[in-house]
Amino acid sequence: MAEAIAPLALVHTPRAPVAIAHSRHVADPSACLRGGETHLEAGSCLVLDFGEELVGVLELAVMVHAATKVELIEGEDLEEAMLRQDPFPPDHWYHQPRDLLQLDRGTQTARNQGRRAFRFVQVIVHGPGRVTLRSARTILEHAPVTDRGRFRCSDSLLNDAWAISQRTIRLCMQAFYEDGIKRDGMLWIGDYRVEFLCAQYLFADADLARRCLRMFAQCRHPDGSLSAVALHAGGHLYPRISYQGDLSKPGGLHEWVLDNYCADFVSGLWEYVLHTGDADLARELADVTRGVIEFLARVDLAKTVPGRTFITDNQPETKDWWGSRAALGYQLAACFDDAARLWRHLGDHAAAAHCEALRAKRLVETKAMFGEPARGEIRDDLPAASTRSWHAHAAAYLAGALPAEALRALHPRLAADPAVRRPMAGFMEFYLLDAWLRAGLVREALDEMRSYYGQMLRSGATTTWELVDRREPGIDHIQPAGRSHCHGWSAGPAHHLPARILGVTPRSPGYRTVDIRPALGDLRWAEGEIPTPQGNIHVSVQSPLTGRIVLPPGIEATLHLAGREPQTLTAGTHTF
User: Fold this and answer.
1) What is the pLDDT of residues 314-370, one digit of tens each?
2) Which residues lie across from 70 on neighbouring strands?
3) How many angstroms separate the CA atoms of 551 and 544, rounded?
4) For the domain bounded by 510-575, which CATH number is listed?
5) Closest by alpha carbon to 190, among 409, 487, 480, 516?
6) What is the DSSP letter of 501?
7) Nearest in space to 534 (alpha carbons), one of 557, 552, 508
8) 204, 362, 377, 224: which is closest to 291 by C-alpha?
9) What is the 3-state secondary structure (H, E, C) of 334-371?
10) Where in the chain is the domain with CATH 1.50.10.10?
11) Are 544 and 561 in contact (CB under 8 A)?
């Protein structure tokens, strides 16, 4: 088994609750928030509201008048914190977080039994003694990142979507990029890729990303593939999330390989180099990358097993994982394209040519098996009557198999067909929005963002959910797997709004050259800061053809505006 890579030192900050959400048999429940004392008799309970989702250790300053048992039930929403019974059967892999504390008489600080993620905490005094609560706090923890990115626009809902995305990514940046801080607390390749792309526009992270990519590389198999989750390299929080069992011991999950996540590793490595300029890491991991590419070259789309050897999204009917073989085929083609870019940057032109040939072959094969993308005929699987999805069409566009004008032409027909599957899981929503925004479907993408993230915000979300089922008013956080309310793969607005609305994307590694393509859609204005290794880029757009750009030294930008010739910009302030 690979050796775990030592984590970064985390930042720890105390946060106090802001309100009492519920109480029973408590005379003055909010006294502990005002510097007073809240008295909890046996059989009483109190629900603390911290105002937003946090991750860390809960501390209660208490006077215990006689030995007693106290139960803490943490929840990402109030409903979850009010669940007195664990809703999962004894043999289920996941169980609702809760802590049973046996407290002796005296003044003390009571702490929960391991790191937890929550907004609400129900404190239940089971007795026989009573407890006086003097104060409460959570010791918030996350990686040492600095807020650098900023975005604002004329739409308050999109501003809120950006804000909860920012908060989510910061909380998910721990010793490594975690997928969901309440439930898994693990380092998955697919989650990492989206989280990194979001974190770049918030914090310009390189350190944590470098650590994660090295951890993935330690989890390779003899056939060149990588484990989907970096458990062998320490990418888990056991024993701090004890209800998942001892993940330090090798088992089935340690060995799970997902074809699409292997592709995410290759694309994610190129994206890391593109955003950070760190080609040394790519050279260090070159042998691992070659092995992954050759593994993916051998993937037989007819033999892959949806939900087992690759995943695409949650299935609307059952919310179990399903897979679109067509989407996988086009993702593999896009991965080979990213690999070719990476090898060209490293000067290995033979390897680049090999990957270009793999891409061309995979494009021909996928189109022959699953239908013509330009006519909207892509089906998700081999049978003629199989489902169609936005996932497959977005993947085809991102792989270069579907021109932008064709996707724009197809959009009204696909959008009007209720049988065409749309994303539920946040990472698939990320790639759908990426495809639409790149293809010029800006208003359509903003409306999609308002729909997807609006459902979270209307339900009081302070961080982004793992998935959204827009056939339901809220989120099913209980079944089938304890849905996560703070999931980094759903934080797409942190990336899309600065990258596609302000329009700032790197054209060469390390942002030495950038493209700026402002695209307001139906927004009246937008402005923000984009962090880069060279310093922050400021963009303010007042209309489709007017705005202001401030570039730091070391960056050359090309400004693209509709109906105008591209304009080269260097360090300084520019108006257009």
Assistant:
1) 988 887 899 999 999 999 999 999 999 999 999 999 999 999 999 999 999 999 999
2) 101, 125
3) 19
4) 2.60.420.10
5) 487
6) I
7) 552
8) 224
9) HHHHHHHHHHHHHCCHHHHHHHHHHHHHHHHHHHHHHC
10) 150-501
11) yes
Q: Inform me whether the pLDDT recorded for 3 exceeds 70.
A: no
What is the rounded average pLDDT of the residues 22-44? 97
- Within 10 A of 570 (CB to CB), how many other CB atoms are there? 11
Query: CA–CA separation, 260 vs 337, rounded Å?
Result: 15
DSSP 468-479: --TTSSS---ST
Residues linked to residue 180 through DSSP beta bridges, in sequence order: 487
User: Which residue in this structure is represented by tokens 């303010």?
Assistant: 540
Task: Give the Cα separation of 568 and 570 in Å (integer).
Answer: 7
Residues 506-518 have pLDDT tens digits of 999 999 999 999 9
What is the C-alpha separation between 187 and 178, in angstroms, rounded? 5
Q: Reduce the DSSP state of residue 148 to 3 states and report it.
A: coil
User: Is 504 within 8 Å of 497 (Cβ atoms)?
Assistant: no
350 φ, ψ to 5°?
-65, -45
Ranking 21-30, 347-356, 471-480, 523-532 by mean pLDDT, the lowest is: 471-480
Where helices occur in 173-297 by DSSP H, the ranges are: 189-203, 207-217, 252-255, 259-276, 279-284, 286-297
For residues 84-94, average pLDDT? 85
pLDDT at 1 over 50: no
**What pLDDT shows up at residue 470?**
86
Q: Sign (positive/negative) of CA torsion 72, 74, 79, 83? A: negative
- Correct CATH for 150-501 of 1.50.10.10, 3.30.1050.10, 2.30.30.90, 3.30.420.40: 1.50.10.10
DSSP structural state of residue 146: -
How crowded is residue 449: how many other Cβ atoms within 10 Å of its Cβ? 23
Residues of the chain with CATH 2.60.420.10: 510-575
DSSP secondary structure letters along 1-38: -PPPPPPPPPEEEEE---EEEEEES-SSTTGGGTTS-E
CATH 2.60.120.260 occupies which residues in the chain?
11-142
pLDDT score recorded for residue 197: 98
Question: 314: which strand partners?
Answer: 321
Segment 448-471 mean pLDDT = 94
The overall pTM is greater than 0.85:
yes
- Note the pLDDT tens digit of each residue in 159-208: 999 999 999 999 999 999 999 999 889 999 999 999 999 999 999 999 99
Give the whole-angstrom CA distance, residue 166 versus residue 145. 12
**Buried/exposed 275-307: b ≥16 CB within 10 Å, e otherwise:** bbbbbebbeebbebbbbbbebbbebebeebebe
Q: How many CB atoms lie within 10 A of CB 90?
A: 6
CATH number of 11-142, picked from 2.60.120.260, 1.10.10.10, 2.60.40.10, 2.60.40.3140: 2.60.120.260
CB 421 within 8 A of CB 313: yes
- Closest listed residue to residue 432, CA positions, set 380, 397, 406: 397
Range name among 125-129, 232-236, 260-264, 295-299 with the lowest pLDDT average: 232-236
Q: How far is CA 413 from CA 418, 426, 436, 552, in A?
A: 10, 24, 15, 44
